[in-house]
Design goal:
Length: 449
Amino acid sequence: MQNLINLNSLFSHTLLDSAPAVAAADPAFEALRTANNVWMMVCIGLVFIMHLGFAGVEAGFGQAKNTVNILFKNTLTPIIGILSFFVIGYNLMYPGFVAGEGYEWIGFTGFFIQLPADGLNPEYGDGGYTFWTEFLFQAMFAATAATIVSGAVAERIKISSYLIFCVLFVGIVYPLIGSWQWGYGFLFDLGFHDFAGSTLVHSVGGWGALAGIITLGPRIGKYVDGKVIDKPGSSVPLAVVGVFLLWFGWFGFNGGSVLSADAGAVSFVLVTTTLAACAGGMGGYITGYVVFRRLDLGMVLNGILAGLVGITAGANVIDPGWSLFVGFVAGVLVVLSAITLDKFKLDDVVGAVSVHLVCGVWGTLAVGFFASRTRMMDALGVTEWSRGEQILNQLIGVVACGAAAFIAAYLIFIILKKATGIRVSEQHEKEGMDSHEHGIRGYTIVYDE
């Protein structure tokens, strides 16, 4: 999802320039730009619909008494995410770093994006899509990182604290880390590869989720006398619909990260994405049955998401056969991770840490082990490539992004905990936040008198 030319570096260009004017008059170029731009806008819609998927999964796995609270958070998350990214995040993520000119860590070009009067400058982007399309696509990714946190901390976090966290995490933390790779920062120059964000989006959100559940503590009654007490979700069908919406949206998440409508590249990415999702579902199904001796639908659903997260870093460089392996291992890991978290009394309502953090790390490292040599050299723009060196680069990226995301998120939660508190009262948690925080219930049956 590399932004090939920084928006802010192009403000000086106008359609009066001779080269852009010539290109703009070329019918073939206009047709290509239109095709690319339409595909990217379709992908924006697909990624946007993922927020409905996250809402369905979280509301379905959460308890009925907290349904409105969950939906409230998931409705405000993309709103805050997009606004934060517009105000500060984009210019942190794309601060004008130049590829190959040193190992930059941080840069900022000012508040607010000022889109040019005409976003059709044909010099922008590899395939010529517009400024406006680029911003919206990137903004959808940014909002996703905060949504990951929402599911993990559900059913006991204060709305006000969560929303403040969203502003800071999406506006500052996520784009700063993203600039290290997609903004031509030090990870890009190092040779790190994360095609659509196994680390930069998913594990960053996962580290934020882990910081949140550590700081908040488990829900009341979740762990009693060494036993894990299941909290029945409000709607299994809603959770299933949510997962399928996320899978559907992932075609835009990964397919759009090609940054053009190139038929060969897009179709390849969609094939590896789909195969990994299927293999992840099978991994969750088999491992869930072996461990729990039952046909665990929840593990199948999270296995699908695990496979999707796992392949996201290498969807453009890992061949279809290996994508099956990457997805299957992710499906196994998500089950084992969920069990491990419960042993440490880390209460994650939807399994966000297991899906996004653990499988995001796995998928990022898998690039080094299983990427096609030819595809990797093409993706990195190099003529020589070492698998061992790539594995090391992937590990450095995982550690750097993980440390930054976890420390930043943990500090935000700790400061909020000291300043305003981050957890609702015991009464509100036991009786449900819907009635106390929102005054309505998510599921209501009205009888005529």
